[in-house]
Structure formats: structure tokens, C-alpha cells
Specification:
The complex is a heterodimer of chains A (about 110) and B (about 110).
Chain A (H helix, E strand, L loop, with lengths): L3 E4 L2 E4 L5 E7 L5 E7 L5 E7 L6 E2 L6 E4 L5 E6 L8 E8 L7 E2 L3 E5 L1
Parallel strand pairs in A: 2-11
Antiparallel strand pairs in A: 1-3, 3-8, 4-5, 4-9, 5-6, 7-8, 9-10, 9-11
Chain B lengths: L3 E4 L2 E5 L4 E7 L6 E7 L6 E7 L4 E4 L2 E6 L4 E6 L8 E11 L2 E6 L3 E6 L1
Parallel strand pairs in B: 2-11
Antiparallel strand pairs in B: 1-3, 3-8, 4-5, 4-9, 6-7, 7-8, 9-10, 9-11
The chains are: A mainly beta (about 110), B mainly beta (about 110).
């Protein structure tokens, strides 16, 4: 039982490049989330999903897209990376929206 | 929507002393308040939580108190140890449109000096 996993762990991009972050969970959770963590700002919700095939915007969705084609996977895409997207990205999952969230190990992204 | 404020942003204590971290929230409808510990370079992990139907919850050296009237909740760590050094986040479960979402505080960096 791996819990929540994320790939890659670290990535460097040039401005304008694109990439996809992958999140996978093996706990059969319905809800999945993408957060970004910046110094002094806590965790901010980018997008979330309440089930397979669904996605919705969080607090800071601009510049990101997501997809949930399979229940266990939640993908975060950056179509044209900007330096302001330099951050640590955490994926999380939960059984329902009001239950404990389990976090992945994080992806550190540096956009030059 | 909900707004969660956390204080202090940094806290330094001597090993064996107690540490207290406070959070305030704005939405009186919020009813679930978890605390997460994040060690350097690691993922946030739940350490304790409290629901609005109780005023205090304790788990060994960690306790959380909730004052619904004043809309604040606190994390108390007694007999601190160097391994308690980490960033601690509070959160409140609030309502945003038709979805329950967690609103996180900005974090407290706790340094326990041996």
C-alpha cells in the first residue's frame, strides 16, 4: 500500500515549456487535490476532483489544467510554464471532502 | 469563504519546554480542524484533529483546544523534543460553493533547541 505517490520529484523547466505532474493513489479515494506550497503562504488549492471524470477549480487555477481519467490518477498540467509557477506541488486524496487528506511526497518545480 | 490566520510564524523553544501555536478562523460554520506536521523536505502529515462538538483533544504530548465562540483553536506540545522541530499547519474545513474544502494557515516553523 503505497498511499499517494507523485512523479517527478524534481524538475527544472524553461519559461514557456510544458509538463505534466502525475499523482497516483491506491486507497480508492474519491477526492483528489493539487496544492502548491510557497514560502510563508501555506498550501493553496489549485484544482480538485470529486470523482473519476470530474475536475473543478480551486483558489489559484490560472496557468494549470488537470484531468482525472482514472479514479486512481490525477494529472496536473502546465501548458506554458512561467517563473511564478516555481513552487512545491503536493497532491492529496481523501475519502470524502470532509475527511482527512493524505498527501504525496511533493514535486519541486523550478521555472527559469 | 473561510480565512485562517496562524501565529506565530516562527517559534523557538528549549527542549522540554511547551510550545503553543494559535489559529483563528472566520467562518462560524467550519466544523473540523486538523493540524499537520511537515518536516523539512517531507509531506504534511496529520498529527491531531478536532471537531466542533468537543473543546479539547489530547494525544500523548500533543493537545488541541477549540473555542468556537472566539473562533480560534490552538496546538499545544508539551515536553518538546528536537524531533518536534518542523513546520506545523492548521486548517479549517469550510464551505466554498457546494464543496467542503480545507483552508490552511500559513504555517509555524518550530525549532526545539537541545
Amino acid at each position: 500500500n503505497a498511499g499517494v505517490t507523485q512523479t517527478p520529484k524534481f524538475r527544472v523547466l524553461k519559461t514557456g515549456q510544458s509538463m505534466t505532474l502525475l499523482c497516483a493513489q491506491d486507497m480508492n479515494h474519491e477526492y483528489m487535490y493539487w496544492y502548491r506550497q510557497d514560502p510563508g503562504m501555506g498550501l493553496r488549492l489549485i484544482h480538485y476532483s470529486v470523482g473519476e471524470g470530474t475536475t473543478a477549480k480551486g483558489e489559484v487555477p490560472d496557468g494549470y489544467n488537470v484531468s482525472r481519467l482514472k479514479k486512481q490518477n490525477f494529472l496536473l498540467g502546465l501548458e506554458s510554464a512561467a517563473p511564478s509557477q516555481t513552487s512545491v506541488y503536493f497532491c492529496a486524496s481523501s475519502f470524502t471532502s470532509g475527511r482527512t487528506q493524505y498527501f504525496g511526497p511533493g514535486t519541486r518545480l523550478l521555472v527559469l | 469563504g473561510e480565512n485562517v490566520e496562524q501565529h506565530p510564524s516562527t517559534l523557538s523553544v528549549q527542549e522540554g519546554d511547551s510550545a503553543v501555536i494559535k489559529c483563528t478562523y472566520s467562518d462560524s460554520a467550519s466544523n473540523y480542524f486538523p493540524w499537520y506536521k511537515q518536516e523539512l523536505g517531507k509531506r504534511p502529515q496529520l498529527i491531531i484533529d478536532i471537531r466542533s462538538n468537543v473543546g479539547e483533544k489530547k494525544d500523548q504530548r500533543i493537545a488541541v483546544t477549540l473555542n468556537k465562540t472566539a473562533k480560534h483553536f490552538s496546538l499545544h506540545i508539551t515536553e518538546t523534543q528536537p524531533e518536534d522541530s518542523a513546520v506545523y499547519f492548521c486548517a479549517a474545513l469550510g464551505r466554498s460553493y457546494n464543496f467542503n474544502k480545507f483552508y490552511f494557515g500559513s504555517g509555524t516553523k518550530l525549532n526545539v533547541k537541545p
